[in-house]
């Protein structure tokens, strides 16, 4: 089959629709870009609905002329491969360790939280009101493939629907520090950097905990990373004991 | 004085030169954008060399027609204020707690490390070979003002020049976990996500430590954040005990 050479090609138009949340919501699909991400999807057992590659690259998929592919890419000009997948949503947030995000509007932060959730073995990430779409291009990229490995669930903001002990990471000095290992099923609730968690949600949680820092704040992804690290402290990390560096 | 209305204005050309590393290196200056960052600089006692604001904004500084200012901005169209500062470099990395970065080429990661260094009270951040310029626009932005508060030093990669016990965050399973509080002056050494720290540098360090994770890696900023959190565990965080959420 000859490569696609026109940016007006109907199939490429669908790709462009998936760059927007509305397009993703309507189709239930999303796009991952780049060979590393596609390999991560393959490894996690995700079969693409469609796969595209730069003409002449020798990669699998429908060939697209390189300039045209770059034009479709959301993440810069170097992309040689991208693929469309069906979104997967769990019916409900699962334990033993769940991360609930509230109002995390930055897709990079959402993706980074997914990555931390994978690194520290969280069972699921629940996305509450005001969160960026984890299947958006920036979130998928920031997740470095964790989007294909960590179960995702939509959450209404109803604390009763969250698994285990609910622990709100809170900005108030009165809260005690988070102390791991938690030793019980739990959900860690993280709010946006400035707004924090809504008062009603804080009150509905079993307890609050803080991360002791000297400056005013950490961003949500850093907070989630530390909370997950602390929550899983001393647990057996299995065969994949690797450092960060 | 009437607002600057031409994108070809000589002073704006200097701003654009500062967007590039070469321009910053030659002049020893840098640009911070946005009212929050400029307020952080003011609060930290930094006096701008020059200050610009959108015409009619009522902000202090030389007025620039909004469209022209947006054109100069490196960080999107909404910027209403920016300012030029002299870079500040410490003569040497300082303890008691120092973070040394090696080969961290992503400016967002460098800026995020500065932010974590501030959050956990590090005395300085040392930038070794291959690191992004902490005074570049993306690093300054990601630091959320920490660039004005955390002393920065250039480092050659010579471990002997780093303060205290040198602890390499290492990817090898053989290393013991990092255990805080360290209880002694120390430098935490962080390498790039895939490459890690060079072998010679690892060998020159007093010891290595790892962060136990289940997935293959964290990015350098997440690794540094956890290492700083662990290193300062249980220390008195002073008056600013705030959580992350």
TrEMBL record, chains A, B:
Superkingdom classification of source: Bacteria
Protein's name according to its UniProt entry: tRNA/rRNA methyltransferase (SpoU)
Organism of this sequence: Conexibacter woesei (strain DSM 14684 / CCUG 47730 / CIP 108061 / JCM 11494 / NBRC 100937 / ID131577)
Molecular-function GO term, any one: RNA methyltransferase activity
Family: Belongs to the class IV-like SAM-binding methyltransferase superfamily. RNA methyltransferase TrmH family.
GO biological process: methylation; RNA processing
Pfam families: MRM3-like_sub_bind (PF22435), SpoU_methylase (PF00588)
Keyword tags: Methyltransferase, Transferase
CDD domains xref list: SpoU-like_rRNA-MTase (cd18095)
Domain tRNA/rRNA methyltransferase SpoU type intervals: 97-229
């Amino acid at each position: 089959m000859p490569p696609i050479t026109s940016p007006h090609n109907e199939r490429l138009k669908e790709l462009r629709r998936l760059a927007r949340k509305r397009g993703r919501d309507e189709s239930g699909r999303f796009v991952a870009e780049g060979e590393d991400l596609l390999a991560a999807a393959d490894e996690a057992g995700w079969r693409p609905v469609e796969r595209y590659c730069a003409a002449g690259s020798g990669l699998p998929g429908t060939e697209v002329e390189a300039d045209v592919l770059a034009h479709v890419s959301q993440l810069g000009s170097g992309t040689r491969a991208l693929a469309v997948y069906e979104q997967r949503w769990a019916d409900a947030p699962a334990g033993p360790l769940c991360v609930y995000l509230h109002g995390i509007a930055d897709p990079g932060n959402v993706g980074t939280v997914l990555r931390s959730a994978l690194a520290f073995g969280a069972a699921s990430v629940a996305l509450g009101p005001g969160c960026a779409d984890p299947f958006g291009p920036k979130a998928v990229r920031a997740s470095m493939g964790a989007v294909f490995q960590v179960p995702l669930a939509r959450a209404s903001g109803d604390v009763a629907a969250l698994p285990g002990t609910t622990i709100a990471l809170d900005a108030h000095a009165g809260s005690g520090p988070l102390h791991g290992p938690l030793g019980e099923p739990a959900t860690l609730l993280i709010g946006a950097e400035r707004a924090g968690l809504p008062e009603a949600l804080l009150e509905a949680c079993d307890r609050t905990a803080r991360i002791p820092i000297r400056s005013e704040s950490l961003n949500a992804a850093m907070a989630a990373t530390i909370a997950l690290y602390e929550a899983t402290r001393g647990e057996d990390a299995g065969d994949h004991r690797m450092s960060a560096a």
